[in-house]
Amino acid sequence: MGIVDNAPSFVYSPPRGQVMYCGTARPICAAGPFRGMTTRVGGQPVPTPYSAQLLDHLDSPRNEGKMPSPDAVGIASLSGRAPYFTIYLKVANGIIEKATFQAFGCGYSIAACSAMTEMVTGKAVGACLRMTADEVLQALGGMPEHKRYCAELAIAALRDAIAKLAHPSVAPEER
Asked: What is the CATH number of domain 59-168?
């Protein structure tokens, strides 16, 4: 019996030594639960939709967590439901000194936010405003097309935070 990635209701019992996560069986190993994972369909291994870069951000997310006293906070979601991203920015002289995130969503969501916060740290706010989801996807080595929205939402949260920087009349905890 195999699994089908686009059928989350499909019942699958992973082989011993593997775990279920987002509908895909992945071996557990010392390097992290997602390293060297394999999806099997009809007993045959199939390449997984995770690049090495994406796995790295998934296993060790960078800049995760709420930032104390941010200069701006950006939020993005799918009409108020998951995935839900919050981006925190600390800015000085037009340069993003620090960016952190909180994400409620799948592994692709976490990886997209992690990569995006690394990409914006140390860059001018104007340059970050021009950043696209394609750049985040490229930094992650790609994602399946049906998960592209995770990178788009990460950029939307970034743009929301940058827009709030332009309105200093908003209280800091609301930015």
From this structure: 3.90.1010.10
